[in-house]
Amino acid sequence: MAAAADLEAAAPTGALWGLVQDFVMGQQEGPADQVAADVKSGSYTVLQVVEALGSSLENPEPRTRERGIQLLSQVLLQCHSLLLEKEVVHLVLFYENRLKDHHLVIPAVLRGLRALSLCVTLPPGLAVSVLKAIFQEVHVQSLPQVDRHTVYSIITNFMRTREEELKGLGADFTFGFIQVMDGEKDPRNLLVAFRIVHDLISRDYNLGPFVEELFEVTSCYFPIDFTPPPNDPHGIQREDLILSLRAVLASTPRFAEFLLPLLIEKVDSEILSAKLDSLQTLNACCAVYGQKELKDFLPSLWASIRREVFQTASERVEAEGLAALQSLTACLSRSVLRADAEDHLDFFLSNILQGM
C-alpha cells in the first residue's frame, strides 16, 4: 500500500498534464509560471514535472523537445533553491546530455544549466563537469546574444561559488573561456566577459601557456570604439567599456610585452581618443609594473610621450602625457629602492633631459 501511495504521489496530475500540453503544444507562455508557482507551493514536485514532460522531451520533432526543455528550465530558474542534491545530479546529467541535441534545443538547455549553476546543493565536481560539457559541445559565438550571455552567467556563477573546483581544471579552464569569448561583439556581453578575465587574473587562476591568447582575445577591442544607439535601453556607455577593458589590460605585468607596443602604436596614431585611452592605460599599468617590464620600451615610450607633450594641439593629451611620464618615473623609482636593481631611472631621466 505504501509503495502504491508513493507511486501515486510521483505521478503527474491531470491539471499538470494540461498545463504542460498548453505550454508545449499550445505555445502558451503563462503555464510555465503557473507550474513554477505550483512547485513552490508543494502541489507538484520537480520530478512530477519531468514525468509530465516525458513524451515531449523524447519527441522526434526538435521544436517540441525545445518547448519541453524550455518549460522545465523556466521552472528550475524559479525553483532551484528547492532541489535536493540527488535531483540536481540527475538534472545535470540530463542537461549535459541534451547539449548534444539539435541546435534549436541548445538555448533552453543552457537556461536550465544556468538555473542549476545557482543550486547550493550542487555536489562537488559537477561545476567542472558542466563547464567541460559546454566547452566541448557548444560553439558559443554562433548563438544569439542572450544565449551567449547565459553561458557567461553560468561561468560567473561557478567562479563565485566553486572557485577551487574550477582551479582544479588548471589552464584548461582558461583555454575553454578563451574559446567561449573569442569573437564576442555585443557590449552587454563584453562587460561580463571583461569581468571574468579580470577575475581569472586577479584571483590567480592558472593561465598556463595561454597568457598571450588571453591578451589577444581582450586587447582586440582596444581602443574601444563604441557609440551607444539613441534611446539605448541597456544604458551601456562607452566609458563603461573603456574602464572595464583597462582594468583587464592593466591587471598583470604578464601582459606587458604585448601591451606596451600596442600602447605606443596607439599613442602615435592620429586618433585623439586612442591617444588619450593609451596614455591613461599606461598610467594604470605603471601601478602594477616594475622596471623589468618597462626597461626595453623606455626609449620608445619617451619618444611617443615627448611628441604628445611638446607638439600636441590638445591640452587633454598633453596633460595625460605628463601624467604618464610621472607614473613611469614613480614606477622606476620604486625599483631603485631595491639594492640589487639596475638603475633604469637615471637612464630614463637622462633621456628626458637631453630631449628637452
UniProtKB/TrEMBL annotation:
Upper classification of the organism: Eukaryota, Metazoa, Chordata, Craniata, Vertebrata
GO cellular component: a single term: nucleus
Localization in the cell: Cytoplasm, Cytoskeleton, Spindle; Nucleus
Highest taxon above the source species: Eukaryota
Family indicated by similarity: Belongs to the MET18/MMS19 family.
Sequence ranges assigned to domain MMS19 N-terminal in this UniProt record: 50-311
SUPFAM superfamilies: ARM repeat
Quaternary state and interactors: Component of the CIA complex.
Identification of the protein by name: MMS19 nucleotide excision repair protein
GO BP term, example: protein maturation
UniProt cross-references to Gene3D superfamilies, sorted A to Z: Leucine-rich Repeat Variant (1.25.10.10)
Hydrolase among keywords: no
